[in-house]
Amino acid sequence: MAGASPHSHSGADTGPGPERALSWRLATADDADALVDLIRAAYRGPASYERWTSEQYLVGGSRTDALAVRAAIEAAGSEMLIVVDADDRPVGCCRIADRGDGLVSFGMFAVDPGWQGRGIGRRLVGWAREAAVDLFGGRVMELEALAQQDMLRSWYERLGFAPTGETRAFPSDPEYAIPQRDDLYLIVLAKPL
Question: What is the b/e burial string over 27-66, where b = at least 16 CB atoms within 10 angstroms of the residue's CB?
Fold first, then answer.
């Protein structure tokens, strides 16, 4: 996030066009319901079906709920970063969590399908990187991506994340994550901070 510290809890985007009306801040528990809608829309909602972030053909289920998002906001060593429009509606978010020894995990990343392709995701990842260092003394940020989402993995790699060689089982759940294929698994990517 250009010019704003994660400690300030807010900032304005100085980019051109409609992005100028965006502001960046740490989420509060009051944001939880709107963030659930955003995360679902970005990956599993009808608006995502035409986008490269969609999980429509890979995973079913609701993906998250307000309880999980509130936990990400309120847990010690965890922050949800949020981008909102001029009407305070979220258009992007992510979670960073301190895993100890300088490792920070990155997840719950979403950009509203209507706002994708405008550089918001790239700037949000940059802000997460700054916040991971400032808030948690992070030295490495890691994330998990579905191995079958080639375009998403490639996008992270263009931002400097590299596969660590580690894979993890896909966490299926009858409500939130129902695999549509038998071969789903996660690849771990990491980036030095």
Answer: beeebbebbbebbbbbbbbeebeebebbbeebbebebbbe
Q: Is-contact 111 82, C-beta < 8 A? A: no
* DSSP tag of 65: -
User: In which residue are the tokens 């020894």 written?
Assistant: 101
- The Cα 169–Cα 98 span in angstroms is 21
Q: Show contacts of 166-169: CB within 8 Å, 24+ apart.
A: 168/144
Could you report the per-residue pLDDT of 118-159, keeping only the tens digit for each?
Answer: 999 999 999 999 999 999 999 999 999 999 988 889 999 999
Q: What is the dihedral of CA 14, 136, 134, 41, to 10 degrees?
A: 0
Helix (H/G/I), strand (E/B), else coil: 78: strand
| pLDDT tens readout for residues 69-118 | 999 999 999 999 999 999 989 999 999 999 999 999 999 999 998 898 89
The residue among 178, 17, 23 whose CA lies nearest residue 85 is 23
Give the Cα separation of 49 and 100 in Å (integer).
37
Cβ distance 54 to 43 under 8 Å? Answer: yes
Say how far apart CA 193 and CA 132 lie, in whole Å.
8
| pTM above threshold 0.85 | no
